[in-house]
Design goal:
- The structure is a single chain.
- α7 links the parallel β5 (170-176) and β6 (201-205).
- The chain is of the alpha/beta class.
- The protein is built from 13 helices and 12 strands.
- The chain folds into 2 domains: 17-46 and 316-434, Aspartate Aminotransferase, domain 1; 70-311, 3-Layer(aba) Sandwich (Aspartate Aminotransferase, domain 2).
- The protein has helices at 22-26, 48-60, 75-84, 98-108, 125-138, 155-165, 188-197, 217-220, 287-292, 299-315, 317-339, 372-386, 417-434, and strands spanning 36-37, 92-95, 116-120, 141-145, 170-176, 201-205, 224-228, 240-244, 357-360, 388-389, 391-395, 404-410.
- α12 (372-386) crosses α13 (417-434).
- The strands form 3 sheets. It has a 7-stranded mixed beta sheet with strand order 2-8-7-6-5-3-4, sandwiched between helices.
- The structure holds pyridoxal-5'-phosphate.
- Pyridoxal-5'-phosphate binds at residues 41-42, 97-99, 124, 126, 176, 180, 205, 207-208, 228, 240.
Length: 435
């Protein structure tokens, strides 16, 4: 069925974005009409308007004599973005990406020799290499959970595995809200409550959350959540959001605020120390400012990310989450139809663990699960011959002597059921050819 092609980037008329059709919303994005983008977990597609803001603000600030430092605090943007995620401006930082955010958190924790961290082998390299650095530097112990994979994993099993690694020396629980390799939606609140029971600091890699989930970051109950701005939030590459708990709301997290050293700061006092951290719901100082103030900044990218967030608010984050999840479930059903239930690495029968990132083995021979060449060829040929963009991932599987490889697709608001049908049928034919 053909539809009228509007001018790229024009906003739908009538009731505005809240009631716009998904076809109209797709037209907001700088996406090639002939390609199928199922790899938002790596990088999203920017709306034309976001590109325009980036371009306009870059020009406005080029070669001028204006003071570049005040806008680098992003005060208004942080307040607006924070509101969309249930937090205040003093708890929100616009940073360069999820990697930078999590590195500043891990390096800023007050950890000493003998302390232990519990995390998983399914964390992004950005998390694992930073923890390894502090292990080498300060003599910590990192205790690693390898999350189970496969369609029948249950949330309780994951929480139990974390709990088994906690000892009296444990100080930190760190995990991805949604894992990069198998797209497991971690039982975030249950893990944070586990941390609360043991008095632990919680660090969440939330790279994949913003723009996908309509979430309240404070209600997760974590101390830190580091997010990407360029994935599901569809902001420019090189943008991220960092939530830092800066006051105590006992209903969400009853623990005192952890000692935290805001690394890379031109706001931290040059003499003396900041005031003691608050024990109440009123902040004693603006930790967000401490982290935000770090010299000159890419003002254009910050403004473009803020515009992407506004567009999401206009469309409705609840509506977007429902759409993304519905497309994800549609894709999961199509994958099961073509490849079978056991081909899934992503938890699927427990709805609490499902996300719209789905990892699967398209090849019938079990030993192909560790054949990197087949996976690389599969992904490359999908892109080059069919303009379908997914990725492969590699990860530890409990009791397996080898890492496993998987194909991973993810759905976003600009995808359609038709695209998913075409992508999965094409993948099935290609997998048959390569088997
Ligand atoms: C779960 C997860 N964490 C962290 C990252 C790194 O994100 P960024 O590129 O924003 O630093 C990624 C990137 O794919 C990711 O999927």
């Amino acid at each position: 069925m053909s539809r009228t092609v509007p001018t790229p980037g024009t906003q739908p008329s009538g009731g505005g974005l809240r009631t716009a059709s998904w076809d109209e919303i797709r037209d907001l994005f700088a996406l090639d009409r002939d390609s199928i983008h199922l790899n938002t977990g790596t990088v999203g597609a920017m709306p034309y308007e976001v590109l325009e803001v980036n371009d306009r603000v870059t020009r406005e600030w080029t070669g001028g004599l204006m003071n570049v430092y005040p806008p680098a605090m992003y005060t208004e943007h942080r307040a607006n973005i924070g509101r969309a995620f249930g937090v205040d401006e003093d708890e929100m930082v616009i940073c360069h990406n999820a990697t930078e955010g999590v590195a500043r958190v891990i390096q800023g924790l007050d950890l000493k020799s003998g302390d232990e961290v519990v995390t998983t082998s399914h964390e992004c390299y950005s998390v694992l290499s930073n923890f390894n650095l502090v292990r080498n530097r300060h003599g910590l112990t990192i205790r690693m959970v390898t999350p189970p994979s496969g369609p029948d994993v249950r949330a309780e099993e994951i929480v139990r595995l974390f709990e088994e690694q906690i000892t009296p020396r444990t100080k930190v629980l760190a995990f991805a809200a949604i894992t990069l390799f198998t797209g497991t939606m971690m039982p975030v609140r249950a893990l944070c409550e586990l941390a609360h029971r043991h008095g632990l600091i919680t660090v969440i890699d939330g790279a994949l959350i913003p723009g996908m989930l309509d979430c309240d970051l404070r209600a997760y109950g974590a101390d830190f959540v580091s997010c990407s701005g360029s994935k599901f939030q569809c902001g420019p590459l090189g943008t991220g959001l960092l939530y830092v708990r800066n006051k105590v709301h006992p209903e969400h997290n009853p623990l005192p605020l952890p000692t935290f050293w805001p690394l890379i700061s031109t706001w931290y006092p040059m003499i003396g120390a900041p005031p003691p951290r608050t024990t109440t719901s009123v902040e004693s100082y603006n930790m967000g400012d401490y982290l935000q103030s770090a010299g000159s900044a890419n003002i254009a990218k910050g403004a473009a990310l803020a515009r992407a967030c506004e567009l999401w608010d206009e469309i409705g984050r609840d509506r977007i989450e429902a759409r993304v999840r519905e497309l994800g479930e549609y894709a999961r059903d199509r994958l099961v139809e073509h490849f079978g239930w056991d081909a899934l690495y992503s938890p699927s029968s427990d709805p609490r663990l499902r996300s719209p990132l789905i990892a699967f083995n398209p090849f019938p021979a079990p030993e192909d699960a560790w054949n990197i060449k087949k996976f690389a060829t599969f992904v490359d040929r999908l892109e080059q011959e069919h303009r379908i963009w997914i990725r492969w991932t590699e990860f530890d599987v409990p009791h397996s002597p080898h890492q496993h490889y998987a194909a991973r697709l993810c759905t976003h608001l600009f995808n359609s059921h038709g695209e998913i049908d075409r992508a999965v049928t094409t993948m099935a034919a290609l997998a048959r050819e390569l088997s």
